[in-house]
Amino acid sequence: MKEEASTLTCYRQTSRYSWRLQDAFDPNIPEEGPSAPPPGWLDDIHGYQGHKGGQDDNPLYPPPPPYSPQPELNKNTLVPNVRVPTISEDEARDALLKFVQSKWTYSSKPARNLTFKELKPITVYRYRLETYTETRTSAWQFEPYNGQMVDGPQFGMCPPPWDIPVTLPQRYTSMVEKIRVPHTSFVKLCHTCNGCGKTRCTNCSGRGRKLCLNCHGRGHKKRSGNRKKSSGRRVCPSCHGRGRKRCISCQGQGYKTCSVCHGSQNLLHFILLTVTWKNNVDQFIPDRQPDFPDKKFQRVTGDPFFIDENVLVYPIQGFPDQEICDASMKMINEHLNRFSSTSRILQQRQTIELVPLTHAYYSYKGKDRSYFVYGTENKVFTSKYPSACTIL
User: Fold this and answer.
1) pLDDT in tens, 128-170
2) Which residues contact 288 (CB under 8 A, 6 or more apart)?
3) Strand stretches in the chain, DSSP E
4) Rounded (10°) CA dihedral 300, 372, 307, 283
């Protein structure tokens, strides 16, 4: 027993001495720095002076005056008269039968046998304003430098944000395009590893080894067994008596390849222009039917009997529904104030739809009831239905 304990002590001392030599980390390997360049790390570029550095730096560039259309004063748009659509009793019944079929607890018998008393058409207009805009922002980007071409200021002055040519997408289609700004590239040491290409492992603090959790760094564990033979120690099977284990994160090296430059030590910085095309839509429906929820209109279409499209559209006047005229003036002014200061307005379109809505009154088994048929799809809304059973 004494001989075995002496051998164990000698083995542990030798092992710990050799591992102490391996644990001496290289002080020249820096700790991992910020993932984004800190403020002031990058130089200003003419025409893009809004950049201050940092991860959230993304300045917006309002369009210059030639790109911003100006509305004409005291100009308006006239709308032709329109006839309110009606539906027949057969159409109203078919719509209700289709609605009942989608409700497994409803019986189709009331829909087949009800007696219509009145089909009352209701005039519902939906006004929609679309403003198609183009917005330009930019941000510093970087990539590992591996000898690729550097398009820097030595090749000329970089163009201003709104002078960079782009291909316009299909009108009223939302899309984002990213373009590398010409002549803004340059190479600089990696800000994360300070040009070393590798960073100190944070899991083991650069030592390559970690405390063994199985023996808590002692290198041995108590023997298991009966009380007579339980005294004494045995070598820890996890660390083999060393008290420490190889760091899995860095494979015992004490450092990792830089996650930003991927070991290239240098980064190629450049300005990336982001061009965003967006169709901004607002709509308005007068609320004149308290028994019918207006949100139902969002899922159906109407008849667009009036479409006005231009770079800038003008408020509607002379329309029979004054609320539509007021909504047109309000939305056009709001869109002009909201988008002209930050974006380029490419096109506007205002539409008036006549959304079919019929209040169907009927009687069934001596009781008067009603439901609504709405949209060109003849959807049905009813708060109460005569039967709620699965027997057809």
Assistant:
1) 999 999 999 999 999 999 999 999 999 999 999 999 999 999 9
2) 122, 124
3) 115-122, 125-144, 175-180, 186-189, 198-200, 209-211, 220-222, 233-235, 244-246, 255-257, 266-284, 303-310, 344-354, 357-364, 367-374, 379-381
4) -70
Indicate the range of 219-228, 265-274, 323-332 predicted with least confidence: 219-228
**Residue owning tokens 């494979």:** 251
pLDDT tens track for 91-118: 999 999 999 988 877 888 899 999 999 9
**122 bridge partner residues:** 357
* pLDDT (mean) for 165-185: 95
Per the structure block, which two tokens stand in for 364?
């069934």
What per-residue confidence (pLDDT) applies to 246? 86
Using an 8 Å Cβ cutoff, are 347 and 171 in contact?
yes
- Residues near 330 by beta carbon (within 8 Å), at least 6 away in sequence: none
Strands across the sheet containing 379-381: 115-122, 357-364, 367-374, 379-381
Say how far apart CA 195 and CA 30 lie, in whole Å: 10
Cα 285 from Cα 299, distance rounded (Å):
13
What pTM, to 2 d.p., does this model score?
0.73
Strand 220-222 with 233-235, pairing: antiparallel
Buried b (16+ CB within 10 A) or exposed e, 152-188: beeeeebeebbebeeeeeeebeeeeeebebbbbbbeb
Average pLDDT over residues 375-383: 92
Tokens of 216: 């808590």
CA distance 344 to 341: 8
Tell me the two tokens of residue 359.
């209040």
Helix and strand element counts for the chain (H, E): 4, 16
pLDDT given for residue 389 in this prediction: 52
How far from chain centre, in Å, is Cα 2?
Answer: 70
DSSP annotation of 155 reads G
Instruction: Output 282 or 233, whichever has higher pLDDT.
Output: 282
| Pick from 259, 249, 288, 207: nearest CA to 21 | 207
CA 277 – CA 176 distance, rounded (Å)? 6
Instruction: Quote the pLDDT of residue 1.
Output: 42
